[in-house]
Amino acid sequence: MSLMFLSGPLDLGCRQTRAGRRGELLKASRIFLLLVLVLALPSSWAKEAAPVAEDPEIERRMIHLSEDLRCLVCQNESLAGSRADFANDLRREIREQMRANKSDKEIIDFLVARYGDFVLYRPPVKSTTLFLWFGPFIFLAIGAVLLVVYLKRRRRQIEDPVLSEHQREQAEALLKEGKGNNA
Amino acid sequence: MMRFLLPLVAFIVLVAFLLIGLGLNPRQVPSPLIGKPAPEFQLEQLHESEKTLTSKDNLGKVWLLNVWASWCVSCREEHPLLVELAKSGIVPVYGLNYKDERDLALQWLRQFGDPYTVSIRDPEGRTGIDYGVYGVPETYVIDKNGVIRYKQIGPVTVEALETKILPLVRELQG
Fold it and tell me: Per the confidence metrics, is the pTM higher than 0.90?
């Protein structure tokens, strides 16, 4: 909006020589309008935007990491998205560790040591989670085998029907009749 | 016959799994700290803030660490039990005042009774993170070697006290 408005007076400036007095009047009224609008802006706009975090790079890394972490208070929320006080504390902890040059893996190990694998949305592959990871594929394989067996059995059950001479004549008669009706 | 039996059996198995799932409490996240040394801390005491308590001060005895806060409603629920336990003298209970204000905490203890041998303060919840605290109250049983042996998530109940905590404490006290 504001850009459109600003382009008005500038535009007018170029055309002024030809448009003469009328143009000048228009220009004055537009500048007046612009002034009114600028003065009407809430004074808070003049302030600099408050920084989202002290270090946007760390903030980006922190959010990226905590999107894969579970907030233990509201268990269906990620640590990045949760507004729980507890999530806030953990985000602060992650930020501090990042500032201390800890790697993502070190931070995740830190959290897992305290809260267990439950804090991870992607559980690690280990003996207790093998079924979790590969169970669906086992079920898929079982389903595929059952499907193949079923289809083969079904194919055997299908027989081409053998029509007697009489039946064939009847069928042809019906087909002809159908054509006749359509026409 | 098999046509109906097989889906029926599969259905019953599924229902059984779902029923078991319904009975589980998703808040009971097993702590990975069981059997591990209790994380070290050095925290200021609630009553005498110039004094501190460290995790090593309690080596050689079995003790309970109860995490509580004056803003925590379930803490009121378990508090009478803790007061009673402290009176019995079976096992010392230490309080970790979690993310609280000193005045409010002291007032709360005056109001509901103070079962704690010593109370320590963790106003920013940092020691809480080390102990894997994600809600209050939580209670830890720590043995003579400073190893965490049990974690009660949520309020201590009569049942938990009688079936788990006290038998374990007696066993650890030897």
Answer: no
